[in-house]
Amino acid sequence: MSGLQCLATENIWFDKCCYDEAEKRFYEGVNGPTTQQAKTAVQQAKGRQQKRQHRNSSSHAGDKELVSRMKSLELENQTLHKVVEEMRAALQKLESRVAVLEKSPAPVAVPAAKAAPVQAALVKQENGDDAEDDDDIDLFGSDEDEEAERIKQERLEAYAAKKAKKPALIAKSSILLDVKPWDDETDMAKLEECVRSVQMDGLLWGASKLVPVGYGIKKLQINCVVEDDKVGTDILEEEITKFEDYVQSVDVAAFNKI
After folding, report:
1. Which burial class, exposed, middle or buried, applies to 216 when counting CB atoms under 10 A from its CB (0-12, 13-18, 19+)?
2. 3-state SS, residue 217
3. Is the dihedral of CA 160, 163, 165, 168 positive or negative?
4. Measured between alpha carbons, how far is 248 from 191 in angstroms, rounded to an integer?
5. Please, what's the b/e burial string for 73-100 (b: 16 or more CB within 10 A of its CB; e: otherwise)?
């Protein structure tokens, strides 16, 4: 076999890139990493160092904040202790005062009704029998009593006459009624006419309006003023429901005293 044939059968030239890569790795292992790799390693080391410094600075700032908060809490705790001590001292003073007041006897008050006869007896004893004789002599007492009694009677009669002329207060109420028809075909004008035809002493009809209920049906809402002693809601409902051809039911929507 000739040399050309041997070279033709060899495939080393086709895998040259693999051999070049292996050769490069061999020399890198012998001589150390290249400049680019060294720069990358230095940058990575700097980055790790900066991260450590950042963590250290953040932890240091957190420690400072924690210390300041602890100091403020200590100050607040001391203030609260002072307030509690002051309140405790004030409570003790109050308890001692209450104890003293409970132990001391209360002064006995002499009723004026009982003291007056005692004073009168003392004055009578001091003045003697002469003063007693003088009290028995009343020259003008009877005339003054009769005059006072007459004036009192005149004033009572005048007050009674004035009170009789004053009109008595009549209690009244305002009532709002809901009158419901049977269906939408009910003549609402005739229904209102029937309601207003209810007349009695102490009843006064007022304004009215039609309020929709649903499905085309409307109810009559009418207001009236009544005297409480003469007209009640039961009587009104009973009289209105007598018109059973138009009225299905009557309800009291509102009731107010006037």
Report:
1. exposed
2. strand
3. negative
4. 11
5. eeeeeeeeeeeeeeeeeeeeeeeeeeee
DSSP state of 168: P
- Residue 194 · residue 155 · CB < 8 Å: no
Chain mean position to CA 201: 46
Task: Supply the pTM of this predicted model.
Answer: 0.37
Contact at 8 Å (CB) between 241 and 247? Answer: yes
Q: Which two tokens stand for residue 176?
A: 């709002």
Edge to edge, what strands does the sheet with 217-227 contain? Answer: 203-214, 217-227, 172-181, 247-257
Phi, psi of 48 (to 5 degrees): -65, -40
Tens-digit pLDDT profile for residues 135-158: 554 555 556 778 888 888 888 888
Structure tokens at 183: 């269906």
**How far is the C-alpha of 246 from the C-alpha of 194, rounded, in Å?**
9
- The alpha carbon torsion through 90, 95, 101, 104 (nearest 10 deg) reads -130
Nearest CA to 233 out of 152, 175, 158, 169 is that of 175
- Residue 113, pLDDT score: 47
Q: What is the pLDDT of residues 111-135, one digit of tens each?
A: 444 445 555 555 555 555 444 445 5
